């Protein structure tokens, strides 16, 4: 019974990470990216860039908390000596580390936007930062999908 509750909570948290990642990547990012390409409305583009960074940062916080809770639940499973595979613990730790890197990148993107304003939008440094954040997001999403699907096969 207790194991079923832990598994349900873990599945919910993984669904939150995967679902949020898909929504951010498929719905939010493309919509905001279209708005960032408008050259004639620089003040508007600056605001959209800030919204984009803040939206990703909020998702990252939710994903970080969800992963931390999953990690705590898995450590609890180890302590109470339930059947458990350590590779899940390793993947969750990797996800937490990648999310921490994303927090750092988001902070630098936001700092650059605040310091340079419109000049930061679509600059090579800002674009490289966004590309790295997108790459990390894809890796996190892939790892979360693996965590979601593989235990069902075992």
What would you note in describing this structure?
There is one protein chain. The chain is mainly α and 154 residues long. It has 4 helices and no strands. Helix 1 packs antiparallel against helix 4 (124-153), helix 2 (42-79) packs antiparallel against helix 3 (86-116) and helix 3 (86-116) runs antiparallel to helix 4 (124-153). The longest helix has 38 residues, at 42-79. The mean pLDDT is 82.
Q: Which quaternary structure do these chains form? A: single chain
Provide the gyration radius in Å: 18 Å
Low-confidence stretches: none
Give the number of helices.
4
Strand content: under 5%
The number of distinct β-strands equals 0
Main pleated-sheet profile:
none
SSE string, helix = H, strand = E? HHHH
Shape: elongated
Mean pLDDT across residues: 82
Structural class, judged by helices and strands? mainly alpha
Ends distance: 19 Å
Query: Which percent range fits the helix content?
Result: over 70%
């Amino acid at each position: 019974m207790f194991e079923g509750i832990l598994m349900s909570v873990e599945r919910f948290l993984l669904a939150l990470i995967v679902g949020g990642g898909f929504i951010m990547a498929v719905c939010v990012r493309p919509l905001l990216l279209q708005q960032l390409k408008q050259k004639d409305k620089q003040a508007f583009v600056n605001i959209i860039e800030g919204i984009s960074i803040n939206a990703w940062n909020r998702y990252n916080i939710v994903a970080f908390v969800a992963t931390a809770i999953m990690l705590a639940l898995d450590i609890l499973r180890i302590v109470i000596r339930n059947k458990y595979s350590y590779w899940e613990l390793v993947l969750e730790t990797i996800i937490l580390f990648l999310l921490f890197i994303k927090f750092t990148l988001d902070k630098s993107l936001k700092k650059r936007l605040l310091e340079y304003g419109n000049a930061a939008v679509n600059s090579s440094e800002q674009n490289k930062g966004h590309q790295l954040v997108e790459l990390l997001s894809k890796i996190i999403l892939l790892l979360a999908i693996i965590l979601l699907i593989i235990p069902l096969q075992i």
